[in-house]
Amino acid sequence: MSSQPYRNALVTGASSGIGAAIVRRLREAGLEVHAVARDEKRLAQLAEETGCIPHAVSVADQKGIEALIKDIEVDVLINNAGQSRTGNITKTTPEDIDALVDVNLRAVLQLTALVVPGMMQRDRGHIVNISSIAGHYAFAGGNTVYHATKAGVHSLSQQLRCDLFGHHIRVTEISPARVETEVFGRLIGDMAEAKKRFFDEYESLLPEDIANSVAFAVLAPSRMNVSFMEVLPTMQVVGGLNFAKKTADKV
């Protein structure tokens, strides 16, 4: 095999933020990029800017995704599309659970299952899953369902390496901490307020930081598999220990 066998990539959640940055970076590297997202207008703008091939379809649309994949021999799959919500499990609606599981986990499983057989037949491929530190750490303020779905993506990434043993197919999980994207604005309904609350006083990651992490893994020599990459702002740490004080017994 050559040191860089890939010709194309398919990126989900590609219309903005991390996904759009990944599209730009892989186009710079010379790959043909299929950009998948729901926002047709933004995809058209991205296509004009980068020369990517836009596909306005939701990853939760199983039939639409099946029709798309039928005509593409995917070398590199970037599972990036995702959603989040505010609140813990006590404030999560059945609709929230369905939406998060559908986009964050079910779509990743289904899309991966669609492209892997072709990769195995060609003995060439790379699956990159964008997860989150929420899949590895518990912390106050996180949405329980979001944490659970991202933990599922982590487990999938590990198991795929076992499933694909003996094939020249690489699997990479990239797990970012806080990245300055529109997601935070959608969560609280006001991007200006989100910027003030989450970014103005913090040096967060930028979407291009994650795109460069993806490029490092994808463009590495084919003998090298970057299995897991946790990417945090220099000034952010994870973990810690909370300990509630004793209180009088409740009546």
From TrEMBL:
<protein>
    <submittedName>
        <fullName>Oxidoreductase</fullName>
    </submittedName>
</protein>
<keyword id="KW-0560">Oxidoreductase</keyword>
<dbReference type="Pfam" id="PF00106">
    <property type="entry name" value="adh_short"/>
</dbReference>
<dbReference type="GO" id="GO:0016616">
    <property type="term" value="F:oxidoreductase activity, acting on the CH-OH group of donors, NAD or NADP as acceptor"/>
</dbReference>
<dbReference type="InterPro" id="IPR002347">
    <property type="entry name" value="SDR_fam"/>
</dbReference>
<dbReference type="InterPro" id="IPR036291">
    <property type="entry name" value="NAD(P)-bd_dom_sf"/>
</dbReference>
<comment type="similarity">
    <text>Belongs to the short-chain dehydrogenases/reductases (SDR) family.</text>
</comment>
